[in-house]
Amino acid sequence: MPELIKKQEEEILRYPRLDTVLMVEKVIQDHDGEYRKKSLWENLPKKMMYQTFCVIIDYLLYSRKISIDNEGKIGWIYYPESVDERIKNKHLFWSPN
Q: For 94, which DSSP code?
């Protein structure tokens, strides 16, 4: 695994700025499940290189803030404020019976 990360670091020419990452996060939250990867990139309010956009998408997938369904649409799945409420509902959890 560390070899894969090291190889990816060598291929990245530009790292995104924080405001760029936050912009992409906001667009994904506002258009939850509407866009596929390329159409999301085309509909961003500020243009950026596709490679930089891919780095942001990879980061959001790795940090488990977004998911991609079987149609290829990107959805926002990170809701930390509702975790406490969900944990109280024990009947929603899977148990090996």
A: -
- Residue 1: per-residue pLDDT: 47
Read off the pLDDT of residues 31-77 as tens digits, 9 standing for 90 and up.
999 999 999 999 999 999 999 999 999 999 999 999 999 999 999 99
CATH class of the 2-92 domain in this structure: mainly alpha
Nearest to 56 by CA among 69, 74, 83, 71: 74
Residue ranges per domain, the chain?
2-92
For residue 93, the 8-state DSSP code is S
DSSP state of 80: G
Tokens 């085309």 locate to: 42
Contact, 75 vs 66, CB < 8 A? yes
DSSP 6-40: HHHHHH---PPPHHHHHHHHHHHHHTTTT-BHHHH
pTM score over 0.70: yes
Distance between CA atoms of residues 41 and 49, nearest Å: 9
